[in-house]
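Entry, Tuesday afternoon. Goal for today is a structural model of the target with pyridoxal-5'-phosphate bound, before we commit to ordering more compound. Inputs were pasted exactly as handed over by J.K., no edits. I checked the ligand SMILES twice against the vendor sheet because last time a stereocentre got dropped in transcription.
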Amino acid sequence: MEHHANFIPWQMLAKKYQIELRIVPMNKDGDLDLTELKSLIDHKTQLLAVSHISNTIGTIHPLDEITGLAKNKKIPILIDAAQSACHFEIGVDSLNCDFITFSGHKMFGPFGVGILQVSEKYLGDMTPFNLGGGIIKDVQIGKTSFLNFPHNLDAGTPNVSGVIGLSAALKLISKIGKSDMESHLNNLTLFALDQLSQVPGIEIIGNPKKRIGIISFNLKNIHPHDIASFLNKDGIALRAGMHCTQPLLRSLGLHATARISFSIYNTEKEINKLILSLKDLIKFWS
Ligand SMILES: Cc1ncc(COP(=O)(O)O)c(C=O)c1O
């Protein structure tokens, strides 16, 4: 169910170092199979990586249970919080994990900038993955030594404007309040699921135990790209395609979905407009 960003790096490392990459299966509702997870982690497991919220189905993964299982076996945990950082309080301590990643562009910030938080325990293990200026303690012809974390991870000229922009975005989010964001998204998601269920020929992808902010769907006999372009002319922007989760779509036997994702500025009125637009599209296509 992972975004390619939290899948391909592990796949590449596995290939390079002959590491076994184990995938936790999901059920057809879009929930991870935690019984399988129990049997997949053992004394050889070096890392458990999981997203907080699926960017395609909207599943909120039960992080408490997942991190509990891994921590019991002393396995470090990485959480991809790209979809949750905007509206959930996150942090390596509060989420009981060791690494958290998230991106600026998912929280009103600039593109190409993000945050990696590392728990105290692993700070000393963080070595440069990119090489260049700015991360240096000392360079001699025969050897180089590096600054400590986090300065050893930012080789080259830094994305200064990106970081300043992200900082402004974080301040804006604090001002709005994450819990207000979360409850607004919750209400919109419930309202939209109810309204969408009345659209003829619709298939909502997944029915996870907990979801927020994201709904993927298909309409019978209408390609998701056609849905997106039709709605676009009504001023409604949604994404169609595989959402950077090709293994997920393949496992569901799908080539693409149309995906609605909400933010603080969306309203129930806009959802009503979306429903009318979908009904127009179905009429147009029949
Ligand atoms: C869950 C999730 N993880 C990772 C990413 C990728 O972030 P970036 O493109 O900043 O690497 C995204 C989307 O952009 C996402 O939705």
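The beta strands are 48-51, 77-80, 99-103, 114-118, 136-139, 144-146, 202-204, 214-219, 239-241, 257-261.
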